[in-house]
Amino acid sequence: MSLFWIFIVILIIQRLSELILAKRNEKHVRSLGAREYDAEGYKVIVLMHIGFFVSLIAEYILLGRTLNPYWLPLIILFLLTQLLRYWAISALGYYWNTKILVTPGSSAITRGPYKYLKHPNYIAVVVEIAVIPLIFSCYITAVIFTILNLIVLKRRIKIEEKALSILNPN
């Protein structure tokens, strides 16, 4: 099995594990009265991430892409991004989710990376979407999905900020 396929399998297992964690967290915060915002927008994000994997695999196979000559610094950047992502997930605890769920009576998290950055998890996702295809010279996927991801996240952050303003109306 090539490095590409090993990497893809690990990513898919990682993402599926995160969805299981998100579902568990969703159940917990919904039991506390959490309200979901932008359920329709969530479907678009899911489709975009599925499209990302399809595009990445298709470009790699159909265009005969190979490992980027700068793969090592790109993998290091990817791994640093994973540290940021999991630091953010850990800081949010049960409040981490792939959906926008706001629990009444809670307050915005200000520990971990949230002490320094407003949206560390989204920063990590932006870097991932750009870097993963670059590791394997999939430049088309890197450009298209980086742009799509920025568009989707800009909208999502606006909705999330509005939803979170309910917690801290100042």
Describe the structure.
The protein is mainly alpha-helical and 170 residues long. It has a single domain (35-164), classed as Four Helix Bundle (Hemerythrin (Met), subunit A). Helix content is 69%, strand content 4%. It contains five helices and two strands. A two-stranded antiparallel ribbon has the order 1-2.
Write the topology of this structure:
Layout (H helix, E strand, L loop, with lengths): L2 H29 L3 E3 L1 H24 L8 H22 L7 E3 L17 H16 L3 H26 L6
Antiparallel strand pairs: 1-2
Q: What would CATH call the architecture?
A: Up-down Bundle
User: Count the strands?
Assistant: 2
N-end to C-end Cα span: 54 Å
User: If you compute it from the alpha carbons, what radius of gyration comes out, rounded to the nearest whole angstrom?
Assistant: 17 Å
* SSE class: mainly alpha
Q: Point out poorly predicted stretches.
A: none
Write down the CATH class: Mainly Alpha
How many strands, what sense, and barrel or not for the largest sheet?
2 strands, antiparallel
List the secondary-structure elements in sequence, H or E: HEHHEHH
* Neighbour order of strands in the largest sheet: 1-2
Strand composition percent: under 5%
Give the fraction of residues assigned to helices.
Answer: 55-70%
Q: What are its keywords?
A:
170 residues; mainly alpha; Four Helix Bundle (Hemerythrin (Met), subunit A); two-stranded antiparallel sheet; 5 helices; 4% strand
